[in-house]
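Notes from hallway chat w/ T.B., transcribed later so I don't forget. T.B. wanted the structure written out for a chain they're using in a teaching module, and asked if we could keep both sequence and structure tokens in one place. Agreed to drop them here.
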Amino acid sequence: MAAVATGHEIAKGEIFWVLLFGLITISFWFTALVKKFMEGKLHA
């Protein structure tokens, strides 16, 4: 029973890190996209 609980905790931790990494990647990509858009507007 304890092994099952530990495995579940590890899985929850992995999901947390995957979500956190995904969020950082999305915000980084979004920031780059906004910068590109703003640069395009400035040059136009």
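Follow-up for T.B.: The mean pLDDT is 83. Might be a good example for the class.
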